[in-house]
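Repro:
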Amino acid sequence: MPVAIYHPEYGAYAFDANHPFSPLRIEMVLDLLREAHIPLELLKPDAATPDELRMVHEASYLDAVAAVSCDPADPRFEYGLGTPDNPVTAGMDRGAARIAGGTLTGARMIAEGRASKILQMGGGLHHARPALASGFCLFNDLAIAIKNLIQHGLHVAYLDIDVHHGDGVQSIFYDDDHVMTLSFHESGEYLFPGTGWTHELGQGMGRGFKLNVPLEPFTEGDSYLEILDMVAQPALEYFRPDVIVFQAGADAHYADPLADLLLTTQTYETIFQRVIGYANRFAKGHLLTTFGGGYSLTATPRIWTILYLVLFGHPLFEALPAPWIERWRKHLGENPPRTLHDPPHPYEAIPRRDEINRHNRLMAQRLLDAVSMLWL
């Protein structure tokens, strides 16, 4: 049986009220699962300790985070603290440490044989660097968890479907052959952080183990799934990791306000099923999943609810509970969707569909041609 990890203190990792990275996203998921009478047992993790955070982050950075969390009026811009993307709020370090502890707890449970599949109901803060907050991310919980898995002698495949390139995780393990990173994201030509190109293949011992799939804006679900299988299957079959760490960002959905891909909740359901299949076939059944980006409050809670249902083997319900709809309608000031899945044809047809699909195929083939030479 998979294990779900969550602590109410995750909510302390919050920026200002208008910031898109809102704790409400997770609250809406938990509320929806409870309202739908889905069994929900949540393991409460400890917060990551300073020593655990130092597995990835520099001591001077941790000192700066602690200082601005006590005094938000004194930003530290040299560490990315106090920028529009990463404003500082009182107590944010406490919430971020708890989130990092949650992902680390999941890694330890897998490494110690106490669980094979974990859902960390938070985290996925893939942009944070050792001494830099970036892209709404303070502590890189994913990298901390991966470091722990490596310490246990495991090889890790990091699979990232957030619409933004997983640059922080990639850079931390860029020369490490114990970690394969696979990031499927909107092209950095159009979207933050402007990285994640097919030529970013790693360096030193890590060369050939860093794969990036920069997709064209307005990529739809069928093209996305084709490219996912085209790249992920051979990469995972070659690498044969001991565990897959999966960042399940929901911001490639067509309704997301910060990006331009056109996935639907139906696409996400298929992605989640395929990733579970990848773990079972190529990674001994071991899968550590986190949340991530996702900034549509009408789409993201439904996507992560689908993730929970698929991972835990529950049937998917379609009609959303009326009390949940009414409660969140009042809170959001708009009507949430009434169904778990999106309606058929939820947006206008894309006139460049064939051109976009051809571009994605050629890009993926060039990537595979480049790494296959390094895998010989």
